[in-house]
Amino acid sequence: MSQNRVLVWRGGDLVSLLLKGGSLVGLIALSAVFAVLSPYFFTLSNWLNIFRQVAVVLIAASAQTMVIITAGIDLSVGSVLALGGCLAAVAMSYWGWPFASGALLGLFFATLAGLANGAIIAKGKIPDFIATLGMLGAVRGIALLITGGLPVPSHFTATKLAGYLPESIVWLGSGHLGGIPVPMIFALLVVGVTWFILNRTTFGRSLYAVGGNREAARAAGIDVDRVKIFVYGVSGLYCGFAGLVLVGRMNSANALMAEGLELQTIAAVVIGGTNLFGGKGSVFGTLIGAILMGVLSNGLNLLNVEPFWQRVVNGLLIVAVVVFDQWRRRIVRD
Amino acid sequence: MVVSASPILSIRNVSKSFPGVKALDRVSMDVLPGEVHALLGENGAGKSTLMKIISGIIPKDSGEILLDGKPVHFSSPRDALKAGIALVQQELSLVPYLSIAENVFLGRWPKKGIQVDWETIVSETRRLLERFGIQEDPRTPVGSLSVAEQQMVEILKAVSRPNVRILLLDEPTSALSEEEVNRLFELISEIKKTGIGIIFISHKLNEALRIADRVTVLRDGQKVVTEEASRLDERMLFEYLTGKPVAFSETTYEGDHTGANVVLSLENFSAGGFVRDVTLRIHEGEVFVLFGLVGSGRSTLARGLFGLERIEGKVILGGQVIKPRNPKEAITLGIGYLPEDRRNALVYELPVFANITLAILSLVSRRGILRIREEMHLANDFVRSLRIKTPHVFREVLYLSGGNQQKVLLARWLARKPRILIMDEPTRGIDVGAKFEIREMVRDLARQGLTILYITSEPIEALEVADRIAVMRNGRIARIFEYPKDVDKTMLLAIASGVS
Which domains does chain A possess? Predict the structure, then answer.
């Protein structure tokens, strides 16, 4: 039956290159278009700006990559980010906690939310998107409760200490190190760590196995439930960290920040070539995917396109990429 | 068979290339009315490609296809179907929640006004079922039928089209038990009588010889021979298929193991609510065959030992009473399991090396960090020693042939060094050459001291690999043969099917 599973496309011709390195080619082409349309596009300061804006999405998308490799999906990334960010900001500005303990508090509860996702999915035997969709709503609600719906720090909250956010978190979000934006450095670090997890750890290997064939993973002695719980926990942790970076960049937190992040991360992951149905993918692909989305929104901004259009474009992009991906698979297979 | 009749379908010098592979090289064959023409070949020989060309799934590069002497060209399966060529694939395409009748007429339901004419559908289907000797109510939902029955429905669906001339059956017996195969063959004989020509694709030699009027063998994309089945035997076919002379080893029994240590012993063992009262002992270095037809409980027993079914009774492994609740525990205790269906054990998108080390990740890592070099070394060793055909260990398992995939799984468990290895139908769905190779490996491994519980429903295979054979029927052990030399194929089958 299986004799014709020969890869038809081999390197060399243009079509093959387009099919294989689709996202990278797309990124270059898109950049070229914007470079022609806007003289400002290909300047160093603009690119640093793009990277600064991409950092938050990239951190969360790295987590999303791992989750999607297990054939899961985390719709709660934006909410969990908001929870972590708001908790940290409240602790630092209203309770007077130092940066480190405030950050840890945010990371802790974000991780907890992630673990809860995993536990509900694994032990409750509920589809991933249902569990995380519920969490998307619930966690956003908790963030609103914590902040009372107001920005943090806020001068309108007369009864509370209207403090300021510590320097460290501002540095994390908008500082520079040798001319390079700090959030970009951390985002690339996160990508590196994620690469290491995926390619050099037993946990990473288990992620691929669970996503590629759950039954097979179990039959090889992998504790599938534990892997699931853990990967969502890691996703929570990453999102908490992304929350700190975002708060630092805005010098403020609010419960409604990072809305729609799930869509952006999924787009970055899928554009990066990770299989939406699990078992296959790479975080470097996601890096390209995230930058491509950053370039797209930056370019549209430079061309004075209404920002609402960006949402339309992002949404359509996901669908288009998946359609393209399915089509490519068919061609490459037979 | 009417030899003088002119063929319904003629294939003349058909060639097909894929980049780097000549899949078919000037292949010719024809099919006469009322003939069963078996198309045999190992994986990669080109039989699936030929089938896809005949049924219009892929285009041919050159050559011609004649239907009733007139050249035809199909650009889609729809064209082929319209011309009267119906394909029944391995994967069934029935809708489980619809009835037999609805499935048979799927997509061409007769209408009464704007309403579907249910009466006609049901009565027509009943007529079909009766004509081909199948005792089922046309209104039964297909999902409640066994795989074998579903397959028959699929075949009926194909032949119920008014203009069908040629029926292509792609490995129709691969999921069937012996008895079900018999029923399928009866159905095929009935269809023959209607004058439909049948192409029967298989790699089971004995079945091809039983059902076919003529046999065509492909090897490496070329036709080796077309011959009347009555003039062939299994040995000749094997040589045609592989191009190598046969070196059948007669039974490989190597003396009494009952003096050796007992590795696994079951006392009043039951599993999955179906397997009951099993008591047996397996000794070190022994190949203990569990023979039984599909549904006899052999796999349930194995799954029970591997922690995939609820079990009761006493299981003693290496002197220790155990009760594995999940595969992880079973593996830690020293049990390895190659399931009946490779698809439940392989991660197809992962490369060869990762599939080999999947059950020993803790052994090739330190504090959760993989030692890649060690992993590669180990994987390469197994690729060499088990002769796994792959360009390199980074190749996704997906692209390997069935036999090589099975070897990857074997390597996984050998790397784990289990106390006992359970192999459930390890040669199912792989080509003949690899089949013999794997059986030989099993013998070799036993010689090196590995204890193996070998499950099969092929009597010849049982006799070839076994030191001892237990026959299962209806969830119980019907009989244990201490010396396989005292049994033969018929006896095994008789006991397994409860005839004696």
Answer: 44-328 (1.10.3470)
Chain A residue with the nearest C-alpha to that of B89:
A1
Instruction: Indicate whether B251 belongs to any domain.
Output: no
Spatial distance between the Cα atoms of A54 and B271, rounded to a whole number of angstroms? 55
Interchain proximity A220–B359, CB inside 8 Å: yes
User: Which of A 254-283 lie inside 8 A of B, CB atoms?
Assistant: 275, 279-280
Q: Hey, is B148 helix, strand or coil?
A: helix
Select the highest-mean-pLDDT range: A15-19, B401-405, B410-414. B410-414
pLDDT of residue A162: 57
ipTM attached to this prediction:
0.85
* Predicted local distance difference test score (pLDDT) of residue B489: 77
* Better pLDDT: B487 or A142: A142
For chain B, percent of residues with pLDDT exceeding 90: 38
Comparing alpha-carbon positions, the chain A residue that sits nearest to B51 is A1
Residues on chain B touching A275 (C-beta within 8 angstroms)? 349
A276 Cβ partners below 8 Å, 6+ apart?
A68, A266, A269, A270, A322, A325
What domain range is B237 assigned to?
9-242
pLDDT band at B500 (very low <50, low <70, confident <90, very high): low
Q: Which two tokens stand for residue A74?
A: 């985390």
| Minimum distance, in Å, between the CA of residue A163 and any CA atom of chain B | 43
Cross-chain CB nearest to A221 (options B48, B58, B328)? B328
Number of domain units in chain B: 2
> Do B182 and B325 fall into the same domain?
no
What residues in B contact A225, CB-CB < 8 Å? none
Q: What is the mean pLDDT of chain A?
A: 88
Q: Which of A111-120, B180-189, B362-371 has the lowest mean pLDDT?
A: B180-189
User: CA of B306: how far to CAs of A249, A298, B453, B462, in Å?
Assistant: 53, 56, 12, 22
CA distance A152 to B338: 58
**Pair (B396, B271) in one structural domain:** yes
Shared-domain flag, residues B267 and B238? no
Give every CB contact of residue A31 below 8 A, 6+ residues apart in sequence.
Answer: A41, A42, A295
The count of CB pairs under 8 A between chains A and B is 111
Computed over every residue of chain B, the mean pLDDT equals: 86
pLDDT by residue (tens digit) across B235-267? 788 788 877 765 544 455 566 677 778 899 999
CATH of the domain at B273: 3.40.50.300
Smallest Cα distance from B369 to chain A, Å:
4
- How many H-runs (helices) and E-runs (strands) does chain A carry? 14, 2
